[in-house]
Amino acid sequence: MPSPDAPQILLALQLANGYGAQPGAWRMPGTDPSAYTDMDVLVRYAQTAERGKIQLIFLADTPVLDVDLEQQAPHHATDPIVVLTSMARSTERIGLVATSSTTLNEPFTIARQFKALDIASHGRAGWNAVPTSIPAAAANYGITLPSRQDKYERAHEVVQVVQALWGSWEADAWVRDVEGRRFADMSKIRPVNLRGRHVASAGPLAIPPSEQGQPVIFQAGGGDAGLEVAARYATGVYANPFTIDEGRAHRDALRAAAERVGRDPDEVKLFAGFMPTVAASRRAALDRRRILDESVDLDQRVRYLGSMIGLPLTPAQLDEPLSADQLAAARPSPGDPRAPHALDVAQEGWTLRDVLAHGVIDYHPVVPGTAADVADHMQEWFEAGACDGFSLAVDVYADGVDTFVDEVVPLLQQRGLFHTDYEGTTLRDHLGAPAQYGTDPRLS
Amino acid sequence: MPSPDAPQILLALQLANGYGAQPGAWRMPGTDPSAYTDMDVLVRYAQTAERGKIQLIFLADTPVLDVDLEQQAPHHATDPIVVLTSMARSTERIGLVATSSTTLNEPFTIARQFKALDIASHGRAGWNAVPTSIPAAAANYGITLPSRQDKYERAHEVVQVVQALWGSWEADAWVRDVEGRRFADMSKIRPVNLRGRHVASAGPLAIPPSEQGQPVIFQAGGGDAGLEVAARYATGVYANPFTIDEGRAHRDALRAAAERVGRDPDEVKLFAGFMPTVAASRRAALDRRRILDESVDLDQRVRYLGSMIGLPLTPAQLDEPLSADQLAAARPSPGDPRAPHALDVAQEGWTLRDVLAHGVIDYHPVVPGTAADVADHMQEWFEAGACDGFSLAVDVYADGVDTFVDEVVPLLQQRGLFHTDYEGTTLRDHLGAPAQYGTDPRLS
Ligand SMILES: Cc1cc2nc3c(=O)[nH]c(=O)nc-3n(C[C@H](O)[C@H](O)[C@H](O)COP(=O)(O)O)c2cc1C
Ligand SMILES: Cc1cc2nc3c(=O)[nH]c(=O)nc-3n(C[C@H](O)[C@H](O)[C@H](O)COP(=O)(O)O)c2cc1C
């Protein structure tokens, strides 16, 4: 049992399109096929997560329709601000975080909308500041993607202008003195007047401080350039390491980078993407995943698995394991960090259907198993220093969010790995993030 | 009594900063001085308006802090999308309309956010498409204001791209066929691929139709160029005529312009700005206005009145009427449509304090009086063809919205001038606006 003030796991719940992290989620029994547009459904998931004391909801976002809707639901929310505002109105504690592109949006728009969300939620908003890497998203804004260097140069400018706008009111500028006839102290509200190579803004923003001062910055992906953004500005970082070693390397690099810019490395938390499928037994969890796999595009999945391990696999072999000859001929794709694990699972003798049900081709590590299996995995990663918490991609929200909250959360709590109540009322409280107003003085 | 299917008055309730249309509203008894950031308060006003069957809430907006906050509250909401989404979650019928600048925003952002609001509100969203005319707002986006011609050229492009994005899903594209394994019919979801001189977008939007198909377009102000935008795209037009003649001229011009582009003129509704102050008697209404005037900047107001009627007035004369000599010397400012009315009121012998309490320097026509006085004014304007409805700027929301709903609305209903229930569930239903999906085929 860890000591009472040892660090504990932080949890983010990804709630993307309203159905679940698996492409077939929209077709599952219990799922409302209209959940994508039904704020009532989305709000219920947020409430369930809050019941489980999960620190925050995370909506990844790219402003593009980049999926074939014949079989699958869109990847992202109709609009993150609309969805998170809906959640803010019906929850009280849980943090509300979404991506907004530093490549496609003006800093004034980002600053205003996330600060307004921060106000509406009484200090629970966070912004995941990422450049956009999908050309079709840029085309929706009438531009072609800038070079990687320009994108990251702009990302730095956008975050700095946004934070400066957030800081354009001092913490006590909004006096509201009815007797004294003074609405605000204008000497404590200042313009920004920043001009960079890519963006500029005069300011001030017309929004006073929230209960947490200003929203929390998150960052995701992007190699060294992304690490630099994260190290300078972020409180939370989303990553998708596939192994403990990868997670540890990323987290160590992040902490070192934060230290280089003068921050306490404990101020930056790495959230590892993780896809749990919880059921009464491992077999039941695999069966749940099989139904999901079969609900959309199983044939494609077999071929994809084949290319990952260097074998020409076809659906005809779905109910058989790999033969000894196949195992001998297999060559895990060197560029794919998931490939060795896929081959390991295949070597255990599972049928191809079950190999896939292990989630070996998914874009997050997958654990199909009991609540204890899932908690064990999280404990192992956390205690090995592979992450500070997890960004949960629940397979099917309709029942999966409840199951996680009712079965996995109590286990983590019993093990002293997860808090039993929110530490405060704001997202900064939940993350132990220091108060900040405007740009971080250590960075200027 | 008008015949049952005669046109009736349409009502929009302006809910700007949460306090009221008068600068001193934030200091009034009963007003929560934190209403600007308190969604609960704003939501209550929207619910009251809905109780009164008011057709829509309107949030004017310019993304700039253009007021001295020492004495006054900001003019606009923290963020219109956040505020309207909050209202959407706690109301069921009332329309939700806000301004978003065609000069400063990308069409993809506008299309996505208003359509997401339309989805969240089950078909109640509207967008007031106006170019920005305040240089400081442009500076918040790092640009200088384009020429008037470029601004309006861009406005046309932005509205067309937004409507095309809204129409990128056909009405029945979202099949959600669980058994048939078909989420959507991709043959009915098409890219936009529009490129103008100012903006461009590839599309499609990732959002299916709402209950009203797509949001309703509004327009405001802007002379001939604005009229052209309104005539082509708008269902509702906000205007601030100061007299019946002005209103009639604007409405006639608008209807003629709509006809020229092939639309039925009845499809375009003019909302005249109107600022009622309702009390038990005219004297009581004037006293209410006096308290409001005195709560902020009465001295300035006296001097402003003086410049309007060509006299050097000072606060020393506040409790006296204009002398005969002053009345003889007065010269109403020729460029100000409010000036003749101001002089008329002064000639009735009111003290300067009471002249101001008549609202003669306000930016809307003001009626301080009983509910019947207010209803009479509205009836007169409406029956004279000066407008199709009113955009209500209520002096102090804390009690003024309830008073309007409880006292004026029933009078209008008794006179057969205002509906007694919503005609349907969507904003298009409330406005009698024809169904539309994508750009209006008559305009292409
Ligand atoms: C866990 C995780 C979450 C991400 N979330 C988003 C997102 O919400 N929106 C987005 O456009 N990109 C997202 N990305 C992509 C990265 O921001 C980045 O674009 C990608 O890693 C490519 O980086 P590059 O453009 O620097 O090459 C995410 C990446 C990771 C690893
Ligand atoms: C009733 C009314 C409402 C308006 N609402 C807005 C608004 O919400 N935001 C805004 O920036 N301008 C608003 N305007 C200003 C006009 O859109 C326009 O900018 C102004 O009339 C000047 O026009 P011009 O730029 O064509 O000269 C409004 C004007 C009127 C008459």
Automatic annotation (TrEMBL), chains A, B:
InterPro entries: Diverse_substr_monoxygenases, Luciferase-like_dom, Luciferase-like_sf, NTA_MOA. It comes from the Bacteria. Gene3D superfamilies: Luciferase-like domain. Signal peptide: none annotated. Pfam families: Bac_luciferase. The keyword Oxidoreductase applies. Residues 32-386 form the Luciferase-like domain. CDD domains: Nitrilotriacetate_monoxgenase (cd01095). FMN binds at D61, T99, Y152. Keywords: Flavoprotein, FMN, Monooxygenase, Oxidoreductase. One of its GO terms (molecular function) is monooxygenase activity. NCBIfam families: FMN_nitrolo. Belongs to the NtaA/SnaA/DszA monooxygenase family. This is Flavin-dependent oxidoreductase, F420-dependent methylene-tetrahydromethanopterin reductase. It comes from Sanguibacter keddieii (strain ATCC 51767 / DSM 10542 / NCFB 3025 / ST-74). The lineage of its organism: Bacteria, Bacillati, Actinomycetota, Actinomycetes, Micrococcales.
